[in-house]
Specification:
This protein is 51% helix and 11% strand. The chain has helices at residues 10-30, 37-44, 55-85, 93-104, 115-125, 143-152, 158-167, 171-178, 193-205, 208-219, 248-253, 272-280, 291-299, 304-310, 333-344, 361-369, 379-384, 405-424, 428-438, 445-452; strands at 109-113, 132-136, 224-227, 234-239, 244-246, 258-264, 283-286, 314-318, 351-355, 388-392. Strand 1, helix 5 and strand 2 form a beta-alpha-beta unit.
């Protein structure tokens, strides 16, 4: 099929082959070979008016011409093929190959959570490894996700969609399309296009698990995304006053403090792929995200806590920058970790990554009006819980106080590589690749300008 008409490949293949033939002829001349004897005899008769052309010079000129033709023909053939495979040509083919091959050698990282915080972190981590597995909460009962749960009996697709978009190769395009929310239309108003696609894929493929796999292939994501369970669960909470509430929306709007959360039904089971990913992981990341409605619900699924405790991977909790009304009012960093240990057993978290950068006053006033304050980092109590404290400047200083994906990914990967080296003693190549990936040449263009001034910090 390579010789079919219209491929625009044959001409360059022929030029490359002819150049290789000339280079071979020049080598034969240089070593006085017999295969090109006739050509050699003819060239020896060529002479200037007085002196004959040295045979060595003739061989060198033919070799250089043949080599140039071979390289030019080969490069033109590759360019012709790459223009069809990547018509936008937004980056050089060699950069794409290097990026993908190097990402395949990255550490195996499992991230557990949900909400906006998880998708923000994934945008940064996907630039360092493609061995990513996201275990995402599916207990959301509000907005488009809640309506689709009621209508189709599927798990909440919203957080799954956010993670798929964050890990997509063409993230900016997918973000614009899949996160589009309909503003009008009977039955459509308020729905998210990505949620509808997942619901439709689940109906056509026969299960939500197959729908996620299908969307992952379509978006060519770097890594894997799995729901924490396929059971249609409801998140419930016991409050400090002894009352019980059902549903995420009711939990976050309750006036009393949260004592504990639990799932209904309690016997929901995880996917086999998630347990395998936890077992094989080099690092497991919890958060960032809403503590009681995004992070802990994943840990309540049967066998996930046991798998986490058995895993030899480094367990890292990414602490939120701000407290969250209705969930973590007045919580310090150690209280976040204590809540995780209360639900999943002590000693789970090995390290905690906390922000040390001050929140701009303008943003701070906006958040204080909503009852949110910066999370206090009480290092003494964190260390008593057996947590290694990793301090870093993590916020993006834009309209919202959120983690910066590049800074957060750098902090996580630095810790992961150090722990991997400490455990195995292998790491020189990993360090070289890590430093190379910190350069702006291998960051996505949408992030490179913003991250350029930060890479040396």
């Amino acid at each position: 099929m390579w010789f079919y008409p219209g491929l625009k490949v044959k001409r360059w293949m022929a030029l490359s082959f002819f150049g290789l033939l000339l280079a071979g002829a020049s080598i034969s001349l240089a070593f006085d070979g017999e295969f090109f004897g006739y050509l050699e005899t003819s060239l020896r008769k060529i002479s200037l008016p007085r002196e004959p052309i040295p045979l060595g010079l003739i061989s060198l000129l033919i070799f250089m011409a043949g080599l140039f033709m071979h390289i030019y023909g080969f490069m033109a053939m590759v360019r012709s093929i790459s223009q069809v495979l990547r018509p936008e040509m937004d980056s050089k083919l060699v950069e794409v190959l290097y990026r993908r091959r190097s990402l395949e050698r990255g550490p195996k990282v499992v991230v557990i959570g949900g909400g906006t915080g998880l998708s923000v972190m994934l945008r940064g981590l996907k630039e360092y490894t493609s061995n990513l597995t996201s275990i995402v909460t599916v207990s959301d009962d509000g907005g488009s996700s809640g309506r689709l749960r009621d209508d189709f009996g599927i798990v909440a697709p919203g957080d799954i969609r956010n993670c798929l978009v964050a890990l997509a190769d063409t993230e900016s395009d997918m973000d614009q399309v899949l996160n589009y929310r309909f503003q009008q239309g009977e039955g459509l108003k308020g729905h998210n296009l990505g949620n509808l696609l997942l619901a439709g894929a689940a109906e056509s493929a026969g299960s939500f698990e197959k729908a996620v796999s299908l969307m992952s292939r379509i978006l060519a994501i770097r890594g894997r995304v799995w729901p924490s369970t396929l059971s249609n669960i409801t998140l419930c909470a016991e409050l400090a006053d002894g009352s019980h509430v059902r549903g995420e929306t009711a939990i976050t709007s309750a006036e009393a403090a949260i004592k504990r959360v639990y799932l209904d039904p309690v016997d929901c089971v995880p996917l086999a792929q998630t347990l395998q990913a936890i077992e094989e992981a080099d690092a497991i990341i919890l958060g960032p995200g809403s503590l009681y409605t995004s992070v802990i619900p994943n840990l309540l699924v049967q066998d996930i806590c046991q798998a986490l405790h058995k895993s030899q991977a480094t367990k890292i909790y990414v602490c939120n920058v701000m407290t969250q009304p209705g969930e973590t009012d007045g919580y310090t960093a150690s209280r976040h970790v204590a809540a995780i240990h209360r639900h999943c057993g002590p000693g789970l978290v090995d390290a905690i990554i906390v922000n040390t950068e001050a929140v701009p006053k303008v943003l701070l006033h906006k958040y204080e009006e909503k009852g949110q304050k910066p999370v206090v980092i009480d290092v003494k109590y964190l260390e008593k819980q057996g947590c290694k404290v990793i301090r870093a400047r993590l916020i993006n200083k834009q309209n919202l106080v959120r983690h910066d994906p590049i800074r957060l990914a750098q902090a996580i990967m630095s810790l992961v590589i150090r722990e991997k080296e400490r455990q195995s003693g292998v790491g020189f190549i990993d360090r070289m690749l890590f430093r190379r990936k910190l350069s702006r040449d291998f960051l996505p263009r949408s992030l490179s300008n913003r991250a350029e001034s930060r890479l040396g910090e």
